[in-house]
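Q: Could you fold this chain for me?
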Amino acid sequence: MKILKSNYRNFWLSPHTILERVLFWKTEDEIYEIEVPAWLENICQGLYKVLNTLFPRINYIKIDDFDTWSADITMASVIHPILVELRKVHNSSGIVDNEDVPDRIKSMNAPRVETEYDIDDFYHDRWQYVLDEMIFTFDVLKSDEYFDGIDGRVQNGLRLFAKYFRSLWD
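A: Sure. Below is the predicted structure, expressed as structure tokens.
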């Protein structure tokens, strides 16, 4: 298996950024009140398309025949380090249901929040718990060694992985 992926390309140059440079004496609020001319918008979009064509994001994945022999182990060996890095970076947390975490970090056991838009004291702890369970699971699965007594925890980690898969963003 070979995986080559480059960072996301960000060539977008906002028309407002250009206006800020040209009309440097105006404040940012004044700049954003100006209606952007269609020609300037078209130039920015054209430049973006040209640069993305010249410098595309690398997204190369090659799967060999032997990668499918134990596809679960192959995938676990890729998923595990990604989860470990995601936990280390920790720029955000997914929303986790109380039913998926131990009592000590359930939202009802946290001090009350002031508004419905606030997060409770255990919000990030719940996400860390889910990540830890997934990391444990894929660490076990990539080693191809099942030990008695951990199968339930592995099943729970797989269930959490499936349930919170769309929350695995940074």
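A (continued): The chain has two domains: 2-59, 65-167.
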